[in-house]
Design goal:
The complex is a heterodimer of chains A (about 180) and B (about 325).
Chain A: E1 10-12, H1 14-31, E2 38-42, H2 45-57, E3 65-69, E4 100-108, H3 112-124, E5 129-137, E6 149-153, E7 161-165, H4 167-170, E8 174-178
Parallel strand pairs in A: 2-3, 2-4, 4-5, 5-6
Antiparallel strand pairs in A: 1-8, 7-8
Chain B: H1 24-40, E1 55-60, H2 66-77, E2 81-86, H3 98-107, E3 112-117, H4 122-128, E4 133-139, H5 145-159, E5 166-170, H6 177-188, E6 192-196, E7 210-213, H7 216-221, E8 226-229, H8 245-252, H9 256-265, E9 268-270, H10 293-310, H11 318-327
Classes of the chains: A alpha/beta (about 180), B alpha/beta (about 325).
Amino acid sequence: MIDPSSLRNEVLSKADIAHKIQRIAFEILEAHPHDPLAFVGIHTRGVVLAQRVYDCLTPHRGDIVQGTLDIALYRDDLDNLGTIPSIRGSDLPFPVEGAHIILFDDVLFTGRTIRAALDELIDYGRPAKIELAVLVDRGNRELPIGPDYIGHRMNTSRGEHVRVLFDDIDGAEGVYLIIGGPGS
Amino acid sequence: MIPEAQNPPPRRRKDLLDIETLSPDEITFLLETARPFKDLFTRSVKKVPALRGKTVLNLFFEPSTRTRASFEIAAKRLSADVTNLAVSQSSVVKGESILDTVDTMQSMKVDYMVVRHGASGVPSFIARHTPASVVNAGDGYHAHPTQALLDAFTMKEALGDFPGRKILIVGDILHSRVSRSVSTCAHKLGMEVGVFGPSTLIPNGHPSYMQVFDSFESALQWEPDVIYLLRLQLERQSAHFFPSMREYHNLFGMTRERFRQVEKRGLHIMHPGPVNRGVELVDEVLSYERCLINRQVENGIATRMAVLYWLQPELTAPKFEEQEEETTP
């Protein structure tokens, strides 16, 4: 559990997050008023984001299917990690073959997580289309990957760390910029 | 859909040599990690790229089909390259020492060595002399840690949780590395451990948590949740610890009569395989719905994937760098 008092430099408040999520939801609805959609959240906070956007859309679209993706086994830096990530497992309870997938993650940084997620999704089948939605795009990409739906865009340097907290799992809510923190 | 918080994972180790040195947290982590690996088997692409570009060497100084195949499939599903070396048929027969064999293999730059040997302690000896991660796949009478982990995983699936549950291990407790590792693992996870077997095959200095029974009937009255039948290692029995196979079956085997009681009480039956039909158990046990033997085999792959995923080979070992420098002009 994170002590919120240790976090200064609030970038987004709880109310801001709710507003950004609603905007992402309406942008998705506008782009896809009728197409069948599958929401896939990347563990851990991408899953929360996908769920929140899904909840916003429930009154308008009752037909969206949901799944979760754990990219631990597809990371490109496993060799260097002294502690191996826990695996929660992926759960895609719909045929990926031919699906229109919207991938959710909390922060988009180097793009390596998304690369891993794309590789994993494609191991399940050949989706018709994959789009990407993120709460925060903090720049500094190392791969040619771009988001389709963005909650908040900000310029950061590599030494900074963007931390997203959600009530559901962190017991506090907000987006914070930590200077000199570990890389995202 | 909201994920639950999890305990932080334990630090990685270089080798897995026994259960004794693993903490309950490490064991629990490996069991939790095996779960999603098992889920992969239902995917159309059963492979993940976690060990891409790595080489796993199966170094078996003792014959083995099942364990070797299980490790091979586990490594391949993690995208590693696998080489099998059945040393009983190769250079050791021509007089090469274990260390020379390991040095030769090391020159081929393998990242993981899965070692089985008839003498206790050989995997840990090899581990001290190689930067590769060493997994003990059974050494002498000492340990068979991946067997214990896959058994714990299978029991977790069948029983849900460990504390207060009881496992009864039946057979040659003295010579069995499986029994040693399974009982240690069960104890560390909070299970009660009972053993039963020919009195000549019960070790004198057994650990205090182990309850020893003198008949199958008294052991069943203890109400175990799982009966773990050990394989009678016919190929290893040179001394005569019991009179005959038939007597072994009558006194220590899962006879038809005992099986009826087991079935009535809904107990689970496990066996590390391969089964000697008519010795450790009668045929009909194998079609009993709470006989977990086939599940043990299936779970072996997922558990071994978790082990290979967790271990971390040393990238550079000084000993080998020095050697290489000497030979480089």
